[in-house]
C-alpha cells in the first residue's frame, strides 16, 4: 500500500511541477528575447485640407498665425539602456494640424512581454537607479510597442498637456521596469 501512495504522490508532484513550469514560461515569455519585430513607419502628416478648412472658417478680420508647412520637431533625445540594451532616438513632433506624435527612430531594444511607450515627467537616470522611476509620477501611455526595432509613431492624445512631460520610456508593464529611456530636450 505504501508503494502505491508514493507513486501517486510523485505523479501529483510531477503534474504540479509541470504546471508551475508552464505558468512561468507563459508569464516570462523568454522566447521573446530571441524574436525581433521590425517596424518601418513613415512620419505621419496632417490632412492636406486641415489648414485650408481652418482658414476658410476664420473671420475675414482675424489674423491667424501661419501654420507650419510640415512637421516640426518640438523636442528630441537619445535612448539610454536600462534593463535591456536600448538605442535609437525619440522625437516629439508637432504636425501641421497642431497634433503631436512621438516618433522612435532607429530603435533597437530587446523584445519582451507587455512593452509600452510612455511619455513621462520622470528624469532619465543612468544605471539601475533609472529602471523603476517612470511610474512614480505622471505618465501617458501611448500604446504597445509596435516592434523592438525600426521607426515607429505614437499619437499623443489631443487632451494631453505636454508641459512637464520630459522623457520617453520603453516600459515593461508586466515587470514595472524600463528597458530604455530618453530625455527630451528642445
Walk me through the structure.
It contains two helices and ten strands; from the N terminus they run αβαβββββββββ. It has a five-stranded mixed beta sheet with strand order 1-8-5-4-2, with no helix packed on it. The protein is 19% helix and 33% strand. The chain has 186 residues and is α+β, with helices and mostly antiparallel strands. The chain has a domain at 35-47 and 70-183: Immunoglobulin-like, CATH 2.60.40.200.
Helix content: 10-25%
Largest sheet: 5 strands, mixed
What is the CATH topology descriptor of the domain at 35-47 and 70-183? Answer: Immunoglobulin-like
Question: What is the global morphology?
Answer: elongated
Features:
186 residues; five-stranded antiparallel β-sheet; five-stranded mixed β-sheet; Immunoglobulin-like
Summarize it:
19% of the residues lie in helices and 33% in strands. Strands 1-8-5-4-2 form a five-stranded mixed beta sheet, with no helix packed on it. It has a five-stranded antiparallel beta sheet with strand order 3-10-9-6-7, with no helix packed on it.
Amino acid at each position: 500500500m505504501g508503494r502505491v501512495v508514493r507513486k501517486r504522490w510523485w505523479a501529483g508532484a510531477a503534474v504540479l511541477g509541470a504546471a508551475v513550469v508552464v505558468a512561468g514560461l507563459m508569464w516570462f515569455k523568454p522566447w521573446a528575447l530571441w524574436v525581433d519585430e521590425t517596424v518601418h513607419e513613415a512620419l505621419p502628416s496632417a490632412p492636406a485640407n486641415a489648414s485650408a478648412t481652418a482658414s476658410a472658417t476664420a473671420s475675414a478680420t482675424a489674423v491667424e498665425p501661419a501654420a507650419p508647412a510640415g512637421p516640426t520637431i518640438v523636442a528630441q533625445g537619445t535612448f539610454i539602456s536600462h534593463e535591456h540594451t536600448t538605442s535609437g532616438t525619440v522625437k516629439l513632433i508637432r504636425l501641421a494640424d497642431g497634433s503631436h506624435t512621438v516618433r522612435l527612430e532607429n530603435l533597437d531594444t530587446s523584445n519582451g512581454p507587455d512593452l509600452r511607450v510612455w511619455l513621462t515627467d520622470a528624469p532619465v537616470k543612468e544605471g539601475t537607479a533609472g529602471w523603476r522611476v517612470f511610474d512614480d509620477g505622471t505618465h501617458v501611455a501611448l500604446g504597445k510597442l509596435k516592434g523592438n526595432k525600426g521607426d515607429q509613431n505614437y499619437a499623443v492624445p489631443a487632451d494631453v498637456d505636454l508641459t512637464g512631460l520630459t522623457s520617453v520610456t520603453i516600459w515593461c508593464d508586466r515587470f514595472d521596469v524600463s528597458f530604455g529611456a530618453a530625455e527630451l530636450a528642445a
